[in-house]
Design a protein that fits this description.
One of its GO terms (cellular component) is cytosol. This is ATP synthase subunit alpha, mitochondrial. This protein is an alpha+beta fold. The chain has 2 domains: 4-212 and 387-486, 3-Layer(aba) Sandwich (Aminopeptidase), CATH 3.40.630.10; 215-269 and 312-384, Alpha-Beta Plaits. The chain is 37% helix and 21% strand. It has 14 helices and 20 strands. The strands form 6 sheets. The protein has a 6-stranded mixed β-sheet, sandwiched between helices. Strands 13-15-11-16 form a 4-stranded antiparallel β-sheet. It has a 3-stranded antiparallel β-sheet with strand order 6-7-20. The protein binds ligand L7UNP4BN and zinc ion (ZN) (2 copies). Ligand L7UNP4BN is lined by residues 134-135, 169, 171, 197-198, 215, 217, 382, 384, 418-421, 446. The site of the ligand C[C@H](N)C(=O)N[C@@H](Cc1c[nH]cn1)C(=O)O has 15 residues, from α4, β11 and β16.
């Protein structure tokens, strides 16, 4: 149950919910898509807007330049700056660092959105818009929580730091280098790192996340020449790049979803009896999850198999083909250059560079058997490690307590099939505790045409973060007492 202080904060948050939603609307309106080069300036604008908001809270904000990167067919492109901010430097208080991103996945109304993706629209208690849940809503919920303490003139019981980036959806380009560089400075007094950029496993039951998969993204280019060709003039007499590419893509997974690349499963940890029990014990509504996807049948029928194939086995997904005609109607053309894009979600113990080599060798082997004169080029634009945390860390205890206070129930302890590229890097380099505390529900449709966050989750999420500050401070006080007692004894 909540204390007087918590009730005061919750009341403030409830009363100001429409203002919090208005700010989310302003943020969603910025098309901060980090994938399409033409929108890069909007990402930078979004980072600046976030920096302004943090300055309004009284934080010291540094905008760190990340330089530029090279994309195929595009001159080098400036990366948006990274926000490093801090609020409070009391040596008696623990320091909590929040990581989030304000860039989004691409979205166009024509993709099949019922509402304009960049106009936050409330329908039946849900706030629809690109970035509503991934990740502008949760970043703002953290900011709203801080604002609530400030507005009520309450002492924030923790020191706060913020790392907010604009390139997460493109693989957090440039961030790892800064984490290494700032390890002895920005991170030196950080006690805990919190990320809220994934979803619950259920539409209603809150969750705490202790693992994510990694990802290696591949680009496979097949080219026959410089120009597209008339399929009447050349069809039947050339090796078509698209035919080669489709054959390559078709060789990657079988009909049961098993990855066909030799060696891919070699390093996947074998399944122990203890771990099996863990999946059996999880509350997971398979029908609800299926309904959320809009797909009638999954590859597996039991909850245990589904969870294991999302969390502890790798998966391969084909994302798209660049250069192929994709508009409505028929264009009778043979595209000269096509680029297939796919990625492998990696699980603990798999190695990125081994995975890259296995895939490249396999594609070259498959291609060579086709006797095609076309040129094949395979590249790896993005890769990210899987992440696993220790749930016995005090940070998880604080979060469990905060969840119980705000949602009135214990969280489901989950892993996640998706990837936060920087999570494992934070853990490896800074050696601090990293925790994922999602506020989005399983039906939030991240990356999809109906992305949303519910008003309820956005507002309760704001309360959750405010309560987390209090719980971390309480726990930290206790921990310090314990360690003081230990040293005096
Ligand atoms: C979970 C997070 N909100 C997210 O969507 N992350 C992306 C990051 C990524 C991985 N490869 C390329 N980008 C994801 O999991 O797709
Ligand atoms: Zn995200
Ligand atoms: Zn995302």
């Amino acid at each position: 149950s909540s204390s007087g202080l918590e009730n005061q904060i919750f009341q403030y948050i409830d009363l100001h919910q429409n203002e919090f939603i208005q700010t989310l609307k302003e943020w969603v309106a910025v098309e901060s898509d980090s994938i399409q080069p033409a929108l890069r300036q909007k990402v930078t604008r979004m980072v600046e807007l976030t920096a302004d908001r943090l300055r309004d809270l009284g934080a010291t904000v540094e905008l760190v330049k990340l330089g530029s990167h090279k994309l195929p067919d595009v001159q080098s492109l400036l990366l948006p700056p990274l926000i490093l901010a801090e609020l409070g430097k009391d040596p008696q208080k623990p320091t909590v660092c929040f990581y989030g991103h304000v860039d989004v996945q691409p979205a166009k109304k024509e993709d099949g959105w019922k509402t304009d993706p960049y106009t936050l629209t409330e329908i039946d208690g849900n706030l629809y818009g690109r970035g509503a849940t991934d990740n502008k809503g949760p970043v703002l919920a953290w900011i709203n929580a801080v604002e609530s303490f400030k507005a009520l003139k309450l002492d924030i019981p923790v020191n706060l730091k913020f790392i907010i980036e604009g390139m997460e959806e493109a693989g957090s380009l440039g961030l790892e280098e800064i984490v290494k560089k700032e390890n002895q400075r920005f991170f030196s007094d950080v006690d805990y790192i919190v990320i809220s950029d994934n979803l619950w496993l259920s539409n209603r039951k809150p969750a705490l996340t202790y693992g994510t998969r990694g990802n290696i993204c591949f680009s496979v280019e097949v080219r026959c020449g410089e120009r597209d060709l008339h399929s009447g003039s050349f069809g039947g007499i050339i090796h078509e790049p698209m035919t080669d590419l489709i054959a390559l893509l078709d060789s990657l997974v079988d009909t049961s979803g098993r990855i066909l690349i030799p060696g891919v499963y070699d390093d996947v940890a074998s399944l122990m009896e203890e771990e099996k029990k863990l999946y059996e014990a999880i509350e997971f509504d398979l029908e609800e999850y299926k309904n959320n996807s809009g797909v009638k049948k999954f590859l597996y029928d039991t909850k245990e198999e589904i969870l294991m194939h999302l969390w502890r086995y790798p998966s391969l997904s084909i994302h798209g083909i660049e250069g192929a005609f994709h508009e409505p109607g028929i264009k009778t053309v043979i595209p000269a250059r096509v680029i297939g894009k796919f990625s492998i979600r990696q699980v603990p113990h798999m190695n990125i560079s081994i995975g890259e080599h296995q895939v490249i060798k396999y594609l070259q082997d498959v291609f060579s058997k086709r006797n095609s004169p076309n040129k094949l080029k395979v590249s790896v634009p993005i890769s990210a490690m899987p992440w696993v945390a220790d749930i016995n860390d005090p940070l998880y205890t604080a979060a469990r307590r905060a969840i119980k206070t705000v949602f009135g129930q214990d969280p489901e302890m989950i892993r996640d099939g998706s990837t936060i590229p920087i999570a494992q890097t934070f853990q490896n380099i800074t050696r601090k505790s990293v925790m994922m505390l999602p506020i989005g529900a399983a039906d939030d449709a991240e990356h999809s045409q109906k992305e949303k966050i519910s008003r309820h989750n956005y507002i309760q999420g704001t309360k959750l973060f405010a309560t987390l500050f209090l719980e971390i401070a309480k726990l930290h006080g206790q921990l310090q007492e314990v360690s003081n007692t230990t040293t005096t004894n």
